[in-house]
Amino acid sequence: MQKGIDYIGVAVVFLCHDGKGNYLFAKRSENCRDEHGLWDCGGGAIDFGENAVEALKREVKEEYCVDVLSYEFLGYRDVHRNENGNPAHWLSLDFKVLVNPEQVKNGEPQKFKDLGWFNLDNLPKPLHSQLPRFFDLYKDKI
């Protein structure tokens, strides 16, 4: 059984920032399930028995080797998309997360080709397919 395909998956999605207007993005590698070569913020599924904040802190640490200094819950999204030819449905709990940029490292080099800091006026390209909606929904909060 696959999360998001055989049943609704629940995930945390996080936009990490440095408190100075810079946001962290990762370039997805061929080892990701989809959207190879696209720039994404960060995220992962919530494990059974884990609450959303625990998942947020775990995923930020796994992906970027850094602790969450503070976070703001932005909202949620029902994400209906196609994953490798299969219809998928995820419930995404979206967060803005403050981290120390000096401590950030690529914790998943098998999944991410590169990491980069960008401001909202100069986002990397090409972006993950879900990010335009994310930015549209939360433009007043980020």
TrEMBL record:
Gene3D superfamilies: Nucleoside Triphosphate Pyrophosphohydrolase. It holds the Pfam family NUDIX. This is Nudix hydrolase domain-containing protein. InterPro entries: NUDIX_hydrolase-like_dom_sf, NUDIX_hydrolase_dom. PROSITE patterns: NUDIX (PS51462). Residues 6-140 form the Nudix hydrolase domain. It comes from Candidatus Falkowbacteria bacterium RIFOXYA2_FULL_38_12.
